[in-house]
Specification:
71 residues, alpha+beta, two-stranded antiparallel ribbon, two-stranded antiparallel sheet, 1 helix, 17% helix
Length: 71
């Protein structure tokens, strides 16, 4: 682990994000939004980017990240 890899929180899942689905690599109850830092319960996870392998709390965060990657 390097200084840029955050330490996982207790009950934090590790996922591999695919197109329209994800695979659980390490079981847990939530993932962290790449934009807001909010905890996203797995049952509420609807937005992610398979290329960046990032999860987003909602459409606003996903759009914000998409715009920042395109500029």
């Amino acid at each position: 682990m390097n200084m840029h890899t955050p330490t996982p929180l207790p009950n934090q899942a590790t996922l591999h994000y695919g197109d329209g689905e994800y695979a659980v690599l390490k079981p847990g109850k939530f993932v962290i939004c790449a934009v807001s830092g909010k905890q996203i319960p797995l049952e509420a996870l609807r937005y992610w980017d398979p290329r960046a392998q990032e999860a987003y709390a909602g459409p606003e965060e996903a759009t914000q990240r998409w715009k920042s990657l395109k500029s």
